[in-house]
């Protein structure tokens, strides 16, 4: 089955995405998941969908099942010189933040909360 970027583009203007890309389930990979998992309410408020991406498969959310076979996302997003990478993709589908260290929830939320579209959402939700 061939899965391509269309899978991510279905989120455009609906969700923000956090992609966690790793060669394998390393410590960093687990740390990143744990960091995000502790703040699920904040993720939900910011319309964040978490993608876990490994070389042969990917899945969304925190469950251990529901992995889909695909190499496309890994090939597209993996880091050149690191076996770990986190990417934030905004509502417009653009990459807003990218790093090869575990991303702190503060940095993630601050980055999102400083975006114009997020500020509009927060005003609307007051």
What does this protein look like?
Helix content is 37%, strand content 25%. The protein has six helices and six strands; from the N terminus they run αβααβββαββαα. The protein has a six-stranded mixed sheet.
Strand order of the largest sheet: 4-3-2-1-5-6
Q: What's the overall geometry?
A: globular
Question: What is the β-strand count?
Answer: 6
Order of helices and strands: HEHHEEEHEEHH
Search tags:
single chain; 126 residues; alpha+beta; 6-stranded mixed beta sheet; 6 helices; 37% helix; globular
Quick gist of this model?
By secondary structure, this protein is α+β, with helices and mostly antiparallel strands. The protein contains six helices and six strands, in the order αβααβββαββαα.
Note the topology.
Layout: H1 6-9, E1 16-22, H2 27-37, H3 40-45, E2 48-54, E3 57-60, E4 68-69, H4 72-77, E5 84-89, E6 95-99, H5 105-113, H6 116-125
Parallel strand pairs: 1-2
Antiparallel strand pairs: 1-5, 2-3, 3-4, 5-6
């Amino acid at each position: 089955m061939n899965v391509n970027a269309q899978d991510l583009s279905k989120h455009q203007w609906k969700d923000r995405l956090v992609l966690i890309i790793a060669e394998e389930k390393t410590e960093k990979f687990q740390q990143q998941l744990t960091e995000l998992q502790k703040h699920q309410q904040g993720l939900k408020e910011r319309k964040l969908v978490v993608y876990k991406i490994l070389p042969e498969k990917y899945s969304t959310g925190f469950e251990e099942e529901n992995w889909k076979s695909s190499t496309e996302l890994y090939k597209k997003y993996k880091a050149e010189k690191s076996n770990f990478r986190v990417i934030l993709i905004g509502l417009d589908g653009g990459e807003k933040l990218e790093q090869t260290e575990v991303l702190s929830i503060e940095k993630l939320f601050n980055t999102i909360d400083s975006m114009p579209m997020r500020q509009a959402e927060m005003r609307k939700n007051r």
